[in-house]
Amino acid sequence: MLSYVERPAPADLADVIECVWTVRDPHAAARTPERIVPDGCPELIVHLGDRFARLDVEGRWVRQPRAFVAGTLTRPWMLRAGRRVDTVGIRFRPGALPSVLGGTLDGGADRELPLGRAETRELVDSLGATARLRAAERWVRGRRGAPPASAEAVSRILAARGQVRIDAVARAVGWGRRRLERVFAHELGIAPKLFARIVRLNAVLASLDGGERARAVDLALAAGYFDEAHMLGDFRRLAGRGPRARREADGELARHFTRPERLRALLSHFSNPRGRRDGIIGP
Asked: Which of the 8 DSSP states describes residue 93?
């Protein structure tokens, strides 16, 4: 069984990262594939054990780099863990990764972007410590730069659960639409309209596991979709499954990423940044 542990970001890093996490299983075993659903958050991944493999568009399983950035996803990724699992992840807030690593995410959507040798060596060496989640936080803390330019626009889209016109977002932050699109391309690697669709989909995912599950058409209308078919189309394109498919079907690790409480915290962070509790979240 995979052991997953997650540490929410400390207060001084909460505007940059959502959390750091680790998943481990030292016992060699064959692994079933995992479906990773887009959520707008790029991640920095370090495989200290056997590397994961990803199913590419040609249907081949290709091993991931030892340490890399997973660019913002616009479609589901199918991953298969290695036989011995020991992986650390740093989940960045939408738009915040370039403020830590520099460079741009333009052209990096749906791609593994390898780290430079010096960056990889520094990070891997720091993760050799016992308190590896805190070590990952220190690594981010030592590299962070200016706040992302997209922060206010991202905040408005999240607060609206994706139900907002992009022209209105641009006006609210005092920009033209083209400038907003350039900033999103640089800091998120995707267009603001696509980011809003991803946010809207995750708002639906966050509402699905309550004690009283609403009918799908009610969920569609509440999330700003024209009808149920419109919502189902987004689910198939972005999540690779229907909205009512069991989360367990995504995989043992992936279901932690689509926990309703995790998605609700992501959606509400910028409107209530102090409404978060520090601590360790286990399986």
From this structure: P
**Adjacent-strand bridge partners of 8:** 19
Please give the pLDDT value at position 47: 95
CATH number, residue 37: 2.60.120.10
Maximum C-alpha span of the chain? 54
Q: What amino acid is encoded at 22 in this protein?
A: T
DSSP assignment string, 215-263: PHHHHHHHTT-SSHHHHHHHIIIIISS-TTS-GGGG-TTHHHHT-HHHH
Binning pLDDT at 50, 70 and 90, where does residue 283 land? very low
pLDDT at 162: 92
CA atoms within a 13 Å half-sphere pointing along the CA-CB vector of 243: 28
> How many other CB atoms are found less than 10 A from the CB of residue 125?
11
Asked, for residue 109, whether it belongs to a domain, the answer is yes
